[in-house]
Automatic annotation (TrEMBL):
Signal peptide: 1-23
Species of provenance: Parathalassolituus penaei
Lineage top rank: taxon: Bacteria
Amino acid composition bias (Low complexity), ranges on this chain: 28-56
Coiled-coil boundaries: none
Alphabetical list of Pfam families matching this protein: DUF885 (PF05960)
Protein name per Swiss-Prot or TrEMBL: DUF885 family protein
Region feature Disordered, mapped onto this chain: 24-59
Keywords: Signal
Amino acid sequence: MLMRHPLLLSLFTCIVLLTGCQAKPKPQTDSSPTTATSAPASTTPAATTNSKAAPAALPPRNVREALNALYEDYWQVRVDHSPALASRLAMAPDQMWDDLGPEERVRYRTQLNELQLRSKEMKVSDMTPQQRLYFNAFQLLLTRQLQLEQCRLQTYQFSYANSWNHTLVDMLERTPVDSIQDFHHYLDLIAAIPGLFSQWQANIVEARSAAILPPDSARREVIAQLDQQLSGYPFSDSAAPSRIWRDLQGKLRALNLYPQSEALLEEKARSTLLNYMLPALRQMRFDLQELKTPTDQNMQQLQGGDACYRLWLADAGAQVTAEELHEQGKRELTALQKDITKALNLDPGVPFAPQLRAWVASSRSAPDDVLTQARIRLQQVNQQLPKAFAYLPGTPLVIQGNKDKLREFSWYQEPLAEINRPGIYWIDKNNPPGVLRWPLDLYRESLPGRHLQVALAQENIRLPEFLRTSALHDYPAGWPTVAARLALSLNGYQNSAEANRVFLLELEEALNLVLDTGIHLFQWNRELALTYCQDNSFLDRADCLTRIDRIMQRPAYFAAAAISRDNIEDLQEKAADEAGSKFDANRWRSDFLSQGALPASLYNEWLDLWVSAQP
């Protein structure tokens, strides 16, 4: 059984805390990372709650209790199965690492099947309409989880974004160390790494015996990651500390021990790293170096690959067949090319892609001080949010500089109320966001993008926890792009060059959809995919090759954003049609985001309830 860990996160070099997106700023505690901007009165939850529909009559208590017990047991099964997942949720797992062995997989499937049998015994007729909606979501997601287990081998054992050498470092960094006993537990985790890697290698061998291996680009990228992990002290003669040593020393210093005690623990930590983690990393690197992997790979070449690929597309929200998705992507790409040609005043009689690349090269702009500019931009957009949302979350957002040279990019870290962690947008200070992504990524990942998406769902107490937590099931992948376009109406872009990059983002996502389905459904080879990419986008040859490698490594992943964005836009259009004069776009946005990870196949059911509740 897992327990929530009462960890408080310390935030350093914090730039700005935006709480202006809620009406009443939360009381600031001593651990608050910085000062907050004041909130406009119009954004207070109190000011908007009164206009919501009156709550439905309470359902029978035994139905509520039975549903809550079912959902809580599902939650517990998921986190007990994966300590890595529990770590993301700031929970202290009983076991060291995920058990990757066959016995655990059988146990996990058995527990999911038992939950499915329990769900079939529920009396749907006793539920309120909203309870039925969430119960249907539970049944759908539970069934899909069982189906995804059948695609375990087809889910590659390693890729550029999903490999245990990367996951274990993230998990170690998240491990709280508040005492000497905690530090010893931290070292025990490191000592258990060889066992984890042994199971990981066994799964790679099992997949290889079924002729299921990722493309060679994945092998090369993971080897590069391992080389990076092995490059610093104490793994090499380098004076610079490795990422894990830097984390370990930070945890040790924070204990504020006597120098002699600290030195003893530091030497034990060094010995543990050299005796356990170093051999495991080296052995995995050797095994991958010897592994023979295909240059190109698509799902049609794998046993069961076609069925798994279609399942992954459905999990991403696909409402039509993979073949129809491919054609939709092509049509959208053509339409966007026409829009871009007009917006950028390109010559329609000349090939599109070379002109677009020339425009991009001549329109490069990046802020000199990305942190300052990010603060200014988000403060401005923050003040505009009440124009687009009926109510807003109270969860604060922190903009923080990233000093970790091993993470040369910017990203959003979700808030966790259990450890008083706000949402954090980490900005790389050494390498600002690529010129094609500024300020798109800022709005996509923070406001009005992912932070609003995450915070509104997490604060919806009527939403079951399995839908509130994206660590269990993903939120709609298309919202960040919808948010980037919404930022146009919030005065987020300062000139036409910045604004037109919204078109480029949508073009890129449509391209990803066509390439993803082209490679994994129609078996496009590398040359065909490369030609299509270069002829239809602003990406150059090197960028196209990288994109193709990534799509081969993560089937359906790059298609998800375009699929989800179309679902959201179609749903909003349908809501406007059905609600008629009662349609309130601001309320629709707030209410939709508050549904968290609700599956796209249930959007229409939710919309029926939403329309009927409009005043």
